Amino acid sequence: MIQLRPMTASEYPAYSDYFIDDYSREIANNYGHSMEKAVELANQDLLRCFPNGLETNDHELLCIESDSELVGYLWHSINTDDKSTFIYDFFIYSNNRNNGYGKLAIIALESQLKSIGIGQIKLRVAYQNQRALKLYQEVGFAISGYNMSKNITS
């Protein structure tokens, strides 16, 4: 059984540490930035969305639990205009992977969203993250586009 619950203020610093580390690596790998620049950009993104920590806004950070044990995180933001949500971050701790928690978390999120009239979940997957791509396809996501970039050297 999976439970999605709002993150507490005392849990936010650990999430921030995980997110900055993980997302900065993704930025460096995908866009060729130095780790120093990638960490700066990851920090900026987190602060832009959570300027006052968890007290705020349109973004929601959830803890994913199984039997009261923290197994991961899910960050999303609802857009009431088009009745959708966008998943910014979805993470299952490596020692909890391959137990079906990812699928169960998506199903739990769908149930919560359906109950408040939200009809679509959107997200972005890094091209090299085949594990995530497979999970999302297994739970019914369809590829709706591609993000592309090109570095221009002088």
TrEMBL record:
Q: Which Gene3D superfamilies match?
A: 3.40.630.30
Q: Which UniProt keywords apply?
A: Transferase
What is the recorded name of this protein?
GNAT family N-acetyltransferase
Which Pfam families does the annotation name?
Acetyltransf_1 (PF00583)
Every copy of the N-acetyltransferase domain together lies at 2-154
An example of a GO molecular function for this protein is: acyltransferase activity, transferring groups other than amino-acyl groups
Which PANTHER family does the entry mention?
A: N-ACETYLTRANSFERASE DOMAIN-CONTAINING PROTEIN (PTHR43259:SF1), SPT10P (PTHR43259)
Entries under InterPro entries matching the protein: Acyl_CoA_acyltransferase, GNAT_dom, N-acetyltransferase_domain
What PROSITE patterns does UniProt report for this protein, alphabetically?
GNAT
What is the superkingdom listed in this entry's lineage? Bacteria
